[in-house]
Amino acid sequence: MTEHGVQEMPSAIVAIDPDGRITQANSSAEDLFGYSWDELSLRPLDDLLREPTELPDVSGDIELACRRKDGSEFRAELSLTPMDTPEGQLVSIAIRDLGQRNRAVERMRWLSAIVEHAHSPIVSADLDGTITSWNTAAERVYGWTADAMIGRPISTFVEPVHAELVTETLAKVREGETVHIPDGQIVRADGRRVAVSVSASPIVGPNGRVAGIAYAARDLSASERAEAKFRWLLNATPLPIVGVDVNGRIRMANTEAARTFGYLVDDLVGEQLDTLLPDARDAVTAESRHDPRDPVAEPTRLAGHRRDGSVFPAEILLSSLLTEDGLLIAVTVHDITARLEGEAERVRLENQLQRSQRLDSLGQLAGGVAHDFNNVLAIILGHASIAEEDLAGLVPGNDQGRLDGARRAVEQMHQAAERGSRLTKQLLAFGRREVVRPQVFLLSDVMADVVRLLSGTLGADVRVSTSSDADLWPVTADPGRIEQVLVNLAVNARDAMPQGGTLQFDAVNVALDSAQAARYGLTDGRYVQLRVTDTGTGMPPEVAERAFEPFYTTKPDGQGTGLGLASVYGIVSQAAGHVYLRSRPGWGTSVTVLLPASSGEPSVRPGAQHPAAPVEATEPERTVLVVDDEPDLRKSIEIILGRGGYAVLSAGSGDEAAQLASAYPGSIDLLLTDVTMPGLSGQEVARRLRADRPSMRVLFMSGFAQPLLTSKGTIGPDVTLVEKPFTRRSLLAKVAEVLAPA
């Protein structure tokens, strides 16, 4: 404290009217003169003076002898101030006991001398932490002079890691608390660290308010420094640690333990460990019987209980130490929430990877099966078309019944083959081997078309609703395949709602950051999210996990192939998107599709296309070279084209086709070749023959078009393809289309 503090001591104040009578007085005036207010009110001021005195008419200070009620006298300084009030002009007189002030000054000088010559460092600061005094011991211990430190922040000579502690201490002292820091560290002028015990106390001014902060430090003994270093290391440890005795009572705790469990360190000391770790008692008992020289035991997994009642998974590691106070058991606590979540995420990603690999393997198998199956179906459809044409040309006679039966048999062959064709298309879609013709379009348009298509097939008890962003981003995909996705999902939803329900189609824009995209195996960027939600029976987890596998179905025999969701998976994957499913028994199912947004302009979608009628050749000199390694299929194609008015050359392999074309003297107008064949592929055959016959048109046919697809899984713009299995009508229409003048 300084003499400035003495000047701020409260003064006795009275106010007198023009007649010299007291009209106001404060409590200090009552205390100073020994009168109550009732006794002072309207009393002449002269009664308080040793002898009557004529006060000056102007403001200023005068020194007079005053007399108390008990007759004692004292010298006082009077400060006069005129005041204009509603009651008239008054004079305010501040009266200071000079003897009391001198005694206070002397007392402050004495206290200052004690502080200045104290053996321990004592530093004072204002409420902002700015240093206001620095005693001789502080200069000696810390190495800084008072001139260098006064006016600087208190944090100047504090270890940087304790900066937060300084802030907390300032806040507590401002509230009137005294803070003891047993293991503080300060930084000397020469850079060395010194371990000290610090007490921070409030300096209270005459008005009773905290006016500053006094820091008194004590240099620690060797044992205290060791203990302080231990506590510093303990509190610097990022793991919660509590020390307990053999009875499980907490004897010490670090700051991380207090933070983790939501307590203050002082609140933890003396509590039972059961408060934090209710299931740790057996482990502590076992550790108390454990030889401290033996290796540390394995960690124990249990639950940690915070002060707010929340629980977290934890692992504790115990180690014992013999101290002068007996056996102390250190309990190190690991909050393993993040680790368990990471393990769960790793398992989920591993399962997702295994599932993706399994589906990819099944897709390759499905593609190969579909290729061979399509060839068989093409043979059946081709010869069925020939039989149908032959039967149509017969004249009804005595065998009319047998003729009608044959026609019905051919019709059944057509229907069965077309059903098989639909199955192979689903297999190819799942295996991402289907021919894709991408366009830029709006999902909302496709949703509207599908809803119109399904309006009469889902049933009156199924309510369908749609919603989409007003500014929905376009996507690039095959709109026909996306229609197939929506139809498959809608049919599945209808089957899951036998008593009716709600089917909701939603399309919204989403922007995925890198972390979100990584969850789905995508890259960050703009996507359109399509979600189809039903209120059906839902699926248990083991069924939902396998929902996208081909041929996996929970429907009764004959009511499902198990290829609907499998084809959805393949179509979306081929469009560089992602599909996932969320389902819960009794709550329904939600299937979400993410498709990359396109920067292109959406094209106008054409109306429904009807199969073109077969076109017979009008120019018999048109020659078609047919190349396919399946003899039966090749034969049926020869018959269909021959009856369609074309001259047909036939080859069973690419090499044979090259030799035949080289020896053939006439023109070859069209090369109709399978894509996948032993030896030369269809593309290689087309390249060789076009080198000599550049005007020759090429039409590829395949039930497995993978060799024709680009790296993006789409068919090239210069490639024309007729997909197996095809009918007589569709083959002749495609041939005529390719041969039509450009």
From TrEMBL:
Keyword Isomerase tagged: no
Domain PAC: 180-232
SUPFAM superfamilies from the UniProt entry: ATPase domain of HSP90 chaperone/DNA topoisomerase II/histidine kinase, CheY-like, Homodimeric domain of signal transducing histidine kinase, PYP-like sensor domain (PAS domain)
Gene3D superfamilies: 1.10.287.130, 3.40.50.2300, Histidine kinase-like ATPase, C-terminal domain, PAS domain
Compartments, as annotated in UniProt: Cell membrane
Native species: Cryptosporangium japonicum
Keyword match Phosphoprotein: yes
Histidine kinase domain ranges (all copies): 368-599
Protein name: histidine kinase
MF terms (GO), sorted A to Z: kinase activity
Pfam families: HATPase_c, HisKA, PAS, Response_reg
Enzyme Commission code(s) on record: 2.7.13.3
Classification lineage: Bacteria, Bacillati, Actinomycetota, Actinomycetes, Cryptosporangiales
Annotated ranges, domain PAS: 1-40, 107-177, 226-284
